[in-house]
Amino acid sequence: MSEQAQQNVWWRPVADFLGIELQRVSHVERWVSGLGGVVGIAAVFVASHFVPDTPAGYIVVASMGASAVLLFAVPHGPLSQPWPLVGGHLISAVVGVTVALHVDNPFVAGPLAVGLAILAMHYARCIHPPGGATSLSAVLLGPSIHSVGYAYVLAPVLVNVAAILLAALAYNAFFPWRRYPAMLARLRHKALRRARPEPEVAAIPHESFVYALSEIDSMLDVSEADLLRIYELATEHKARQEGLDPNALQLGHYYSNGRYGDDWSVRQIVDWDESKPLAERQIIYKVVAGKGRRGQGVATGQEFARWARHEVYRDDENWRRVN
After folding, report:
1. pLDDT grade for 278, boundaries at 50, 70 and 90
2. With a threshold of 0.85, does the pTM exceed it?
3. HEC string of the chain?
4. Domain residues of the chain, as ranges?
């Protein structure tokens, strides 16, 4: 066993127990997230200048910092979407002010405010973790909240929420792989699917996802659309790795790589060297549809089979998969 493998034997259980994220994210995405946090909080500070000079004005900025992590590091997550952001903060602010005005003991008011805020966000379907900090902040203001009252909900909370939301909408729009709100990512995904001749993987019905999530019975910070996308990508990756059997290739037939949108392509085998086994033959093909159309190329049977996802045929104006 290699030294790296030996390290993984003990490290993986420790990482699982501690909840260390093992998902690989590019350095570009990490820097984009960090810079987004700068932009978002800068917008909050600018907006704070329009808030009356009260102690609440700068405490709310702290909860906005937590929101910035979600909006700019996890923009596609369900907890980061506009309604959880706006509803989570405003509802929690109302709960926090209400508790602070009616419960004098901070040791009771603090836990009660956070607990009721979580409950309210659950029922309003706007779970947003920083909302707990917003409700707790109202309690921690002490006597100051009595003079501010429910105005705390509008200024500074609503002002700060509006500022960071607008910053997230504008900033994330600059990066093609990011879509905020997540609905834009789903629309883009649907457009890519329409651009492809036919679905390449078996669709999982919406009802099946609803059932599976209900069985887990816990809040997951991943959307149904993202789960479907993960499933499709994993299935496609597995299929591309497996490829076709080189011995199944036939002269004159058409084959598709089964990719999305602009990457989709169909090739026809126009000639090959019959003196060798199919896997070793030099295959001459031409691209008849999709990316590289009208082009030609040469590949071994093994290379062509690894590229091809399945055989297709032309049906009027559409390409259909051969069953």
Report:
1. confident
2. no
3. CCHHHHHHHHHHHHHHHHCCCCCCCCHHHHHHHHHHHHHHHHHHHHHHCCCCCCCHHHHHHHHHHHHHHHHHHCCCCHHHCHHHHHHHHHHHHHHHHHHHHHCCCHHHHHHHHHHHHHHHHHHHCCCCCHHHHHHHHHHHCCCHHHHHCCHHHHHHHHHHHHHHHHHHHHHHCCCCCCCCCHHHHHHHHHHHHHHCCCCCCCCCCHHHHHHHHHHHCCCCCCCHHHHHHHHHHHHHHHHHHHCCCHHHCCCCCEEECCCCHHHCEEEEEEEECCCCCHHHCEEEEEEEEECCCCCEEEEEHHHHHHHCCEEEEEECCEEEECC
4. 21-172, 182-240, 246-321
